[in-house]
Amino acid sequence: MNLSRGINKFVIANPDICIGCATCMAGCYQSAFERGKLAVPRLIVTRSPNGVMPNQCRQCDDSPCANVCPVGALRFGDDFIESYEEICIGCKMCTLACPFGAIRAEAEIMPSIDYAIIPDYNLGLESVIGSKSVAVKCDLCTGRDGGPACVEVCPTGALIIMDGSVMDGQVVSQKAHDSVSAYIDNRASSTR
Amino acid sequence: MTNNLTEFATDSDLIFCMGTNTSECHPIIAMQMLRGMKRGAKLVVIDPRKTDMAKKADYYLQIPVGYNIPLLNAMMNHIIKKGLHNQKFIDDNCVGFEYVKHCVKDFTPERVEEETGIKASVVREVAELYAKVPAASFAYTMGMTQFVDGTSNIFAISNLALITGQIGRPGTGINPLRGQNNVQGACDMGALPHVIPGGWVMTDNAQKQAKNIWKCNLNSEVGYTMTDLPENIEKGEVKLLYVFGENPVMSDPDTHHFIHACSELDTFIVQDIFLTETAQIADVVLPAACWTEKEGTFLNTSRCVQYLPKAIEPAEGLMPDWQVICEIAKRIDLYGFDFRTPKEVWDEVRLMAPAQFGGITYERIKNRELLAWPCPDEEHPGTPIQYTDFKSFHPDGKFKLIPIGYVDGKEERIAFEKKTAEELNMPEGYPVGCGTMSEKPTKISPCMMTTGRKVYHYHTGTMTRECNALEFGADIMGAVIEISTDIAERTGIKTGDYAVVENKRGKIAAKVLVTPNMVENTIFTTFHYAEADANKLANAEDQCPFSKMNPVKMTIAGIRKIDEKEFKEIRIEDDQLMHPSELYRQARQAIPVAEVSS
């Protein structure tokens, strides 16, 4: 079996190891800021009643967001879904289409506004008529040396890049191997 | 900590976390704990909030705010009843077991179930686990200490660890996780009213060391604590206050009272790297070099001395804190401030406390040797685990077990202590601990309120809120008031509504997050945000009788929904209270936030 070709790579967290420290969000913000993208985090540490982990784009192979984008701001790339924020028209169709809640319509904060006092201008929390928002999602830190910032800064190693070869070697083949071994062992002991 | 923090990963069979939000406040220690769990260690978390750590725990006990002593006593009750205590350890090394036995007899697991709804069977299971595992480590933080019965809470932990013998071996011990990178160092260096590096001020050793090295007669009277400061200013006993590396306007309880007290000072000096809320009400503000701009040592939570070299030269005109203090001391003709390098300062520490630091040379720590005190000579490998010989610091070498009770009202405490001492015929001066609630919900303030941190920010946010990656990247929520679901049902407040939390000391306004993770009838909020600082409402009147700590983790408050107009009014009022400096206000308008940090 060879999955290394043809599937998109993506970043995913292991909730058993994640401690919810949000260093990934800070790293994500900084990477976006340095690459001239909209300076907002693209992965959100999400605390559910039974655990915590960051949630981000799964880079679906037949991605609903790229399929639905009317202007080509989200595109099928070689091995991930590319994002061109500069041509996004803020129609938010991708936000509706995404099954993971991994795309948000965001606008950058205004440096001149004190959000502590005027929170209705905090566009991450409120929507303000007249402000232009664009779709932001994980773009695997395209253009950054060393790959995704979140993976690099995660102190516990909970975040990993899942690409075809990792998927093939550590997930699919490993599980197949384990289950075949288990089947053979069980069969051997039950027929003995 | 009696043990090293890495032992959570390598040795502990049970990690017992009480009153600590470890993954948010101590992520590195949480990581060590998770490694331990992967190895097979069990995790017990006891907290009013179901924290991220609690979600990973094998046992989670959701106690009401401040319900520490009854639970710990119930555990001890069950351990003693079942005969699971370590009688040999107690006989050999402890005194006062009969006192504890007497005091815990009324605290049954069934009583815990009756009072809190936590199943008695779970209390029994957790108690048995703690007593039976080969190595159980107890970790706690401010959720144990910052109460009116904080010291008694810690007595109770120490009782539990001692009667089960869970001390002095790898992976065991009583481990307060230090909230700041150098809080252990600050205490060891004598930033407390009763100690200098040579020991307690009234001891002969400290007196002798002060005379020999500092050439002065040390006052053997214990000074007053930080919590007594506002009152002492108002009484006119304090005329000058010099604050560095701290932001007490936000971090001390009852903000209005504190600010009022500071206004009565003759001179108020603040030395900081930013114009903090405290610096804005100061008469003189001195600049300082930040941690990357100066050389020195930190004493971490595991009592290890760590060397930190200078990474960059400070901006022109800035000096490290130690130099500023030395310069001021020289100007007022004080002896002994002629240090030229941080190494010379450290060498004096070694001279002052040779038993603790004598062997920790600059060369060794620069070589990255991880040395925990006590380390008396240069061949000594340091002491990562304390009490390996099962001897305490008391003159007789025995550990004291302290009787701890729990009373309904704080007025009854003295009577209880007296009664217990008489009943048990205890020797004069033997301490008696007593738990109680500092405040109980009233008609006007029907909810319990507690405070804490969020992972994104450090303390009052002086540094972290200036960092855009944290302020706008990680912390996308900002100041939030978290409320339990029953308050939400009762008041009709929903997630995202604006609300005001108020009591007799003050009020704060923020958005609400209704969370199922909170114990019933409880409000939680943080003290990171000047625009909604929980400490405005915190209790500064009551004190722990031993440590004088204020119960900042427990107060009462009312909550009501407000509209956006009222919200903005409260926020603007708060902004003017916290940021009165015109300089600061102008600067904030003129310089874009993005430029400040880059």
Walk me through the structure.
With 192 residues, chain A is an alpha+beta fold. Chain A has one domain (10-162). Chain A is 29% helix and 16% strand. Chain A contains five helices and eight strands; from the N terminus they run βαββαββαββαβα. Chain A has helices at residues 23-34, 64-68, 93-97, 149-153, 164-191, and strands spanning 10-13, 44-48, 51-55, 74-76, 81-83, 104-106, 134-136, 159-162. In chain A, the strands form four sheets. A two-stranded antiparallel ribbon of chain A has the order 1-8. A two-stranded antiparallel sheet of chain A has the order 2-3. Chain A has a two-stranded antiparallel ribbon with strand order 4-5. In chain A, a hairpin with a 2-residue loop joins strand 2 (44-48) and strand 3. The longest helix of chain A has 28 residues, at 164-191. Chain A is globular, with a radius of gyration of 20 Å. By secondary structure, chain B is α/β, with parallel strands linked by helices. Chain B folds into three domains: 7-177 and 395-435, Dimethylsulfoxide Reductase, domain 2 (3-Layer(aba) Sandwich); 224-299 and 305-366, Rossmann fold, CATH 3.40.50; 447-597, Barwin-like endoglucanases (Beta Barrel). Helices cover 36% and strands 16% of the residues of chain B. In chain B, a hairpin with a 2-residue loop joins strand 20 (498-503) and strand 21 (506-514). In chain B, helix 5 (69-81) crosses helix 9, helix 5 packs parallel to helix 11 and helix 8 crosses helix 9. Chain B starts with 6 loop residues before the first helix and ends with a helix. The relative contact order of chain B is 0.12. Residues 590-598 of chain B have low confidence and may be disordered. At the A-B interface, helix 1 and strand 2 of A face helix 3, helix 4, helix 22, helix 24 and helix 26 of B.
